[in-house]
Design goal:
Blueprint lengths: L1 E9 H14 L7 H17 L6 E14 L4 E13 L6
Antiparallel strand pairs: 1-2, 2-3
Helix pairs in contact: 1-2
């Protein structure tokens, strides 16, 4: 299974949207679900540390696979997370 969240805007609004996206997302098979929940917590903490009016681009995604899909053994997880402050643009 895989999951992803993404948003661009002021940090406070992005924080709420990202939290909503994580909450609406379907539960994953373990251990991916634990990874997804930890990513949600890390994103929330990092976005909460921003000035609420700073513009950011935030995204996270992950997936889980198995060495042997027939028996669901040998799980492996990939995950990427990014929060980029966007400044210095003409607006």
């Amino acid at each position: 299974m895989s999951w992803s969240v993404t948003e661009v805007g002021k940090a406070a609004a992005v924080r709420k949207s990202i939290a909503d996206q994580f909450a609406r997302g379907g539960k994953c098979m373990e251990p991916e679900e634990s990874v997804r929940l930890q990513a949600a917590a890390a994103m929330d903490q990092a976005l909460g540390a921003q000035d609420p009016d700073v513009v950011v681009r935030a995204s996270a995604n992950g997936s889980q696979g198995f060495k042997d899909y027939q028996t669901s053994t040998g799980p492996f997880n990939s995950m990427s997370m990014s929060i980029e402050v966007i400044h210095g643009f003409v607006g």
